[in-house]
Amino acid sequence: MVSYVDDFSTTVASSSYRGNIRRRQNIFTTISARGRDIGVSFSVTKTELIHWRTPSQRTPRSTAPIAMEGHLFHPSEVVRWLGYWFTPALSPTHHFRHMLSLAQAVSSFVKRLSSPGAGVRPFLCHRIATGLLCPLLTYGADLLIPSYTALRGMNSFWHRVQRWTTNNLFSTPTSILSREACLPPIVSYCRYRRRLAALRVACAPLYANPAAARLPPSFPSLSSFSAQDSSRHLTKGLSSVYLPLDWRTKVPSPPLRKHLPIDALAHLTIPLQEGLTRLPLVLHTPPPPGTNIPRQTS
Q1: Residue 272: its pLDDT value, please?
Q2: Cβ-based burial of 6 (10 A; exposed 0-12, middle 13-18, buried ≥19)
Q3: Residue 119 DSSP symbol
Q4: Is the backbone peptide bond immediately before 254 cis, with ω within 30 degrees of 0?
Q5: Could you report the per-residue pLDDT of 216-265, keeping only the tens digit for each?
Q6: Is 167 left (phi over 0), alpha (psi -120 to 50) or beta?
Q7: Would you give the distance in Å from CA 56 to the centre of its chain?
Q8: Which residue ranges make up each domain of the chain?
Q9: Strands 66-68 and 79-81
Q10: C-alpha distances in Å from residue 268, one per residue of 158, 192, 257
């Protein structure tokens, strides 16, 4: 997987940590050989390693390191990829805790620009909150769902931002702060971000977003290409609690069963499919030569 500039990640999976290490080293050897042929070298010292775990794994976490070009890399507790912070158990708490600290630091800096109630007008405070603080606080909410602990800290900070925007007293009930400040609650904004992410996947052609190939075969997409199993193999060996639901089925309460990540995104588009037989493809850039785009008729 290649990022925006010059970073990339490789992921391997098997039933053995040491087997993953060997496969990972073979992949790096292959990539290095291809890079030398075109005059490209890699900064090996910046390598990070992490061992992922599934909810059903009960064995101790592996400490097996990886060796590349004479350097030894031990597995990390947390890795950062494109601004997302991942842990071995894929818990979103660390990520949103980091985003909360970053938003708090920026908020403290902005508030030093003027004294309370003077200098910056309320509509400018609203613009700062919506254009600067909210994107920082909710970064990653398009794919990660904040836990109860993380959401409690995010709500507490967001209430302070709403009071700062409206210059209300601390005795003002939090139930009316969102209306007074014209700032949506964090829970609603996170759902909005996830729905936008679902639309980006559901309406994207495969050459623009390969994740669209993982949509279930029954999903009403104009693209005729999709993976055969739609990631169902990821549930192999898990208990019945983790058997996935159909993407059109709502998660029961209490959630005894779950959606796969791509099915959960597909489920978010159901309210937007009313009256549509197929979701349209949104072409942001011209397709590569030789790409067949299905015609859309009205």
Answers
A1: 85
A2: exposed
A3: S
A4: yes
A5: 888 888 877 776 655 566 666 666 666 778 889 888 877 777 888 888 88
A6: left
A7: 22
A8: 17-81, 91-192, 209-273
A9: unpaired
A10: 25, 10, 17
